[in-house]
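Reopening this one. Same input as before:
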Amino acid sequence: DHVFMMYPIVVRDGVDRDELILHLEKNGIETRYLLPLTNQPVYERLWGHIEDDYPIAKMLNRNGFYIGCHPEMSLEDIDYIVETFSGFFSRR
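Same output, byte for byte:
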């Protein structure tokens, strides 16, 4: 079952993920980086730096993040999120 806690987003190469995250946060939209698996300290201790061996995971670590969501979000909340994303991309 889905817990509707976070919605994952992956930006294309060429989009500055951290700039987008800053824009969202400044506008009251909570974000979190994706949970990286290949570069967790425990894996690095066991197997060294393995991220380069997994290019898709590396791209997700570099370009992915979550925004918060929940089942009680209103259409107005969703419209605000869409408008905030649109505001970021329209100034590019």
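So the earlier flakiness isn't reproducible anymore. For the record, The chain has four helices and three strands.
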